[in-house]
């Protein structure tokens, strides 16, 4: 009888130790799940946040070249004024709408020096309230340097940066916000140069050669003798 009691006591002791070990494990798992839940919630909040200023966008979004969606409002000489349209998640989005501020982001076409004809082309190609995607490359002077993409079909999209260069409506420029020694900088710069070269070969846009009559007219108007003669005639008329 004594042996049975001691065996039962030993079994209960082992069961108690096993329970303590597994309770600790369960507590650790529940704590880990809670922390993971907080991180997921925080990430969801950041992804569903509506950005109304360039400075509101987290630094890591710019560094990781995150792609955002927006609604075009206006095309100005400074860039595109875009309303950010964040990802919508039930419950979280409904709460955020109560305190999100209103404002427009200034989006510039990275790596492109736009010609006046390029501005006219953008105003014709893009429509107010049109949805666009803009990939963050840099942030400078309260503006966002981006690759701007427009849907041209169910599975097709057009990069406005490249298309403007391909049409000869601008020149390649330094991609502000990206480091010169980064692989992404040179990858995009090569793409832009190839697009500009196509316009150059086809004499499109700003690369279009002047006609023979235009060249002769320019030479005559810039001739020093002709300019002196014009000044003399103007002097005679005024006197």
UniProtKB/TrEMBL annotation:
Protein name: CC033 protein
Biological source species: Eolophus roseicapilla (Galah cockatoo)
Keyword field contains Transmembrane: yes
Alphabetical list of InterPro entries matching this protein: C3orf33-like (IPR042421), SNase_OB-fold_sf (IPR035437)
Cellular localization per UniProt: Membrane
SUPFAM superfamilies: Staphylococcal nuclease (SSF50199)
Keywords: Acetylation, Membrane, Transmembrane, Transmembrane helix
Gene Ontology CC, one term: extracellular space
Topology in the lipid bilayer: Single-pass membrane protein
UniProt key word Translocase: no
């Amino acid at each position: 009888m004594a042996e049975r009691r001691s065996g039962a006591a030993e079994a209960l002791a082992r069961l108690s130790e096993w329970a303590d070990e597994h309770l600790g494990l369960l507590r650790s798992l529940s704590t880990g799940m809670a922390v993971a839940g907080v991180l997921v919630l925080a990430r969801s909040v950041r992804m569903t946040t509506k950005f109304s200023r360039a400075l509101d966008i987290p630094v890591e979004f710019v560094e990781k070249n995150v792609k955002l969606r927006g609604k075009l409002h206006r095309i100005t000489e400074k860039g595109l004024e875009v309303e950010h349209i964040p990802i919508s998640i039930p419950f979280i989005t409904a709460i955020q709408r109560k305190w999100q501020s209103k404002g427009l982001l200034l989006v510039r076409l990275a790596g492109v020096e736009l010609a006046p004809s390029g501005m006219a082309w953008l105003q014709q190609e893009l429509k107010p309230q049109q949805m666009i995607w803009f990939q963050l490359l840099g942030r400078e002077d309260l503006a966002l340097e981006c690759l701007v993409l427009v849907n041209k079909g169910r599975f097709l999209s057009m990069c406005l940066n490249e298309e403007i260069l391909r049409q000869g409506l601008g020149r390649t420029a330094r991609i502000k916000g990206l480091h010169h020694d980064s692989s992404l900088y040179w990858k995009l710069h090569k793409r832009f140069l190839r697009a500009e070269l196509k316009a150059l070969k086809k004499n499109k846009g700003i690369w279009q050669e002047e006609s023979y009559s235009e060249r002769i007219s320019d030479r005559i108007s810039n001739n020093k003798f002709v300019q002196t003669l014009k000044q003399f005639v103007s002097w005679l008329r005024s006197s």
